[in-house]
Design a protein that fits this description.
223 residues; globular; 5 helices; alpha+beta; Phosphoenolpyruvate Carboxykinase, domain 3
């Protein structure tokens, strides 16, 4: 269980609390910028505390979300692929077809940045996607950041089709499949603004994908 507190400009994230029955086993304090902080652990909760990674899940994940918002970026539930120097983002919940998409693109020769969680970033040079270490069912992930060409929201079907979305609608759909720092209203608002700018710049919409490679071929044909 995680709890979040704000005291003035300082944040604290408490892990391991059990509905008041026992105290937190790890507490992270962050300054307002999120750039510096410290972790305090409870030694008697661990037989060998010196061997324990202080930022282990979910603290690492929560800190990652917190910091990304300050850098015009967000962690998205998506498959990201690199094909001919361009990135493509396939957004969806569990079961939407992200791992199948990764497998099909891998067979086509693409680099799979990740099949489950991708960092989506907007900066002065455009929009990029970044690989992360948190993969799903496709462990052969890696590569480097890639300029993003398009955002596709996945849905399954028998035939390939594409339904473009207005930028505001697309941003809301991507936000619903992302991992923003919801405990922080200011950073959540910033994340929404970032997604709004991204969806203004790129083609976004629903992509209906069958279980074969036709959707891969369709996306490749768009250039």
């Amino acid at each position: 269980m995680a709890s979040f507190y704000r005291d003035g400009s300082r944040w604290s994230i408490r892990l391991g609390e059990g509905n008041g029955s026992f105290p937190a086993d790890r507490v992270l304090w962050l300054d307002a910028s999120g750039a510096t902080g410290r972790v305090v652990m409870t030694p008697d909760r661990y037989p060998h505390p010196e061997r324990r990674y202080p930022l282990e899940y979910p603290l690492e994940d929560l800190l990652f979300r917190h910091l990304l918002a300050d850098h015009d970026a967000v962690l998205v539930h998506a498959c990201g692929v690199l094909w001919r120097h361009a990135g493509y983002l396939f957004v969806g919940s569990s079961g939407a077809g992200k791992s199948t998409t990764a497998r099909l693109w891998c067979s086509a020769g693409a680099t799979i940045l990740n099949d489950d969680r991708i960092v989506l970033e907007a900066d002065r040079n455009g929009v990029r996607i970044h690989p992360t270490p948190w993969f799903g069912e496709h462990p052969e992930v890696g590569g480097e950041a890639a300029p993003l060409r398009a955002i596709y929201l996945l849905r399954q079907g028998d035939d390939v089709s594409f339904e473009p979305l207005r930028p505001a609608t697309a941003a809301a759909c991507v936000f619903a499949k992302s991992f923003p720092p919801l405990w922080d209203p200011e950073r959540t608002e910033k994340t929404l603004a970032t997604l709004g700018r991204i969806c203004q710049q790129l083609p976004c919409g629903w992509l209906t994908v069958p279980k074969d490679a036709r959707a891969v071929e369709w996306v490749q044909a768009q250039g």
